[in-house]
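name: query_chain
kind: protein
chains: 1
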Amino acid sequence: MNKKKVIASLILLLAITAYFVLFYKDKKLRLIPKNADAVVLIDVKNLTRQYIFSLITHPSQWGGKTKGKNSASLNESGIIIPDFLQVFHLQGTGISEWYSVIELKDPQKFIVFLKQQQFVGKGENIFQKDHVFISIEGENCIVGTSDSGFGVINKQIFQASQKNILNAGQFIQNTAGSISFLSGQKIQNFSIELKDDEIEIKNNSNLQALNTIDSKIRKGNQFLELELDKENIRNFTRFFNKNIADSSQSISLKVTSNLEQVNDTIISYEYDDNFNEVEKKSVQKITQPNYIIDIKSDDPNKTWEYFQSKKWINDQNQFTAIPFLPNEISHSNNGIVIKSTRKPISLSPQLKENYILIRNNTLLYSSLKTLSNTEKKIISDIDYVLYRNKSKDYWMKIKAKNGELPLILRW
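structure:
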């Protein structure tokens, strides 16, 4: 065989290998239970290609980071890296409860990896670290933000006689990820795109009209600004109480809020040598919001009566459903207004759009004590989060601060 044929054969072999490593994907989804009502798919090979391209174009990162003696990569942890990471939410569970099932090639090696990562055993092959729970089931493991759904998942995925097999094509089309909401046979899909300094989530690939209003919405400087119509109020409140939007007769909601650091006096008691009770005061700095909430209503009197029936209005006309007091609530012919009284603020200009804008604020960081350093770093790197809706089109952007590296190399 001459030299040209050898080189051609090597190139062909490399091309075939690259195809199977970076492009070929098994699209069968076998690890999602039947009672899942929301599914997040992460295209691992799509992200791998993005990572490799970003790494090639940023030579400063070629050296990589030196591993500590106790560190271990996921490739060495005993798990099987899937083509699609399948994360799901179970019907009837809390909004913060999400799960994923991962296949293991070496369960014992995975247990060693968990101990290296400082997971604590809780018995029956269940491990916990902070708000992450892991249950090892033979050659699989269930990962969740709670352990309450482990039994149901075990029965539906590992013990069921008939497996629930879905296809990735039902949820995702050539993007880094997707989030889908399931209702019977109906599936509503939102693509997730990872860009250099932002993450974009949308249900329509042609949303230029929503994107162009981005700069108009971001002109203010408040921590939180939002405007929602009746349908959007219903969509958001159904996660907490599906009847609240209709029962309150609300037709629109506008909120403006900023953050302030204030001194909070804590009073405690101790006893002196003669067993006399002595009051002791200490002062700590806490972060509190100042806010104004304007609720337009079809029938403000009914809205007021609904809030009273829920015991959300006390004798001082304070709206107690908001934990940040003091505030005052009042009603007029147009609707209800709730505003904090410590440092009153004004509503931002009316845009007649459906949006939620949350800007990053350093005062938030004092409230993030339970998060890991990595999680804190990610949150501190975010510039703002913007949600937009127009008719049946939905769009959300998580914008990171400008940096020398793209997000995939930063996070």
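note: Residues 66-71 have pLDDT under 50 and may be disordered.
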